[in-house]
What we know:
Blueprint: E1 2-6, H1 10-20, E2 26-31, H2 35-45, E3 49-51, H3 54-59, E4 65-68, H4 75-84, E5 88-91, H5 99-111, E6 116-118, H6 126-136, E7 142-152, H7 170-186, E8 192-198, E9 210-218, E10 225-236, E11 240-247, E12 251-255, E13 258-261, E14 264-267, H8 276-290, H9 298-320
Bound molecules: nicotinamide-adenine-dinucleotide (NAD).
Amino acid sequence: xxxxxxxxxxxxxxxxxxxxxxxxxxxxxxxxxxxxxxxxxxxxxxxxxxxxxxxxxxxxxxxxxxxxxxxxxxxxxxxxxxxxxxxxxxxxxxxxxxxxxxxxxxxxxxxxxxxxxxxxxxxxxxxxxxxxxxxxxxxxxxxxxxxxxxxxxxxxxxxxxxxxxxxxxxxxxxxxxxxxxxxxxxxxxxxxxxxxxxxxxxxxxxxxxxxxxxxxxxxxxxxxxxxxxxxxxxxxxxxxxxxxxxxxxxxxxxxxxxxxxxxxxxxxxxxxxxxxxxxxxxxxxxxxxxxxxxxxxxxxxxxxxxxxxxxxxxxxxxxxx
Length: 321
Ligand SMILES: NC(=O)c1ccc[n+]([C@@H]2O[C@H](COP(=O)([O-])OP(=O)(O)OC[C@H]3O[C@@H](n4cnc5c(N)ncnc54)[C@H](O)[C@@H]3O)[C@@H](O)[C@H]2O)c1
């Protein structure tokens, strides 16, 4: 399988390492409009060719698969271009920034019988896998989930992760992570009583940096009602990304690959076994080889996208009126 990597940032490095470790995968072309940057990345990561755009890379021939690791507003257009050129696509999260766009990409993939997978990498973390197992096995009945995804304040960014130069969107980025996590833990559902509240628009972005989401879910796994509260921020002085599950049998905290209860760590973040990105990329490559739907295809993410779109509609309406 010949891979075209689009983007040369942090996630492009993580995917390059994961993909090159898989048998019969060739890192072939890297795309960046800044060709000097593409050339430096190609040399560092072992790619054979560079191109300024996805169109140019696909037109040069010989590729099978495109991996999109670019700023979020570019995902839809670049994924559509790759699918129209007959490529399988692994796209970083979020796949797109509206329900319409996500459905369009799903339609393009289906029409051409191509694999399209979205990187909900958290689903491949050890702590989350154990949490999902406990709920599925009937060992934990979630009653309430409190989710936090707080990234450091824009303009006061201390970590490489927070130093995006591109405009991020707290709801479409953090929201897709968090809502998908809730779907993963309690099972896919339509929300009851969704409410969405927003802080003011960031003067630089025109979108809110603080978002609060609440809904009631009926878990298709337990058949019971779960109260969900999610807080999203790109305005924090202290980063958090965790899920506190208050269950009938126990209270568990899933955080950055680990799982804790009140006594301490139940599942540690593995130091030696494959990372979430490695497991996720292996699933995508296997799905392409086997000609089957990948684990995180468009039908799987639609319940998440519908909630994020419903919340975004609240923001759009509030700012239109
Ligand atoms: N799955 C996860 O858990 C996870 C974690 C972190 C980031 N992400 C997602 O990964 C994506 C990339 O994030 P990152 O942290 O690597 O960002 P980054 O800023 O480090 O990298 C973005 C790259 O895109 C390049 N780029 C910009 N415009 C381009 C264009 N037109 N064509 C090709 N390349 C272009 C930039 O030069 C840069 O190399 C984002 O969508 C982000 O939401 C997902």
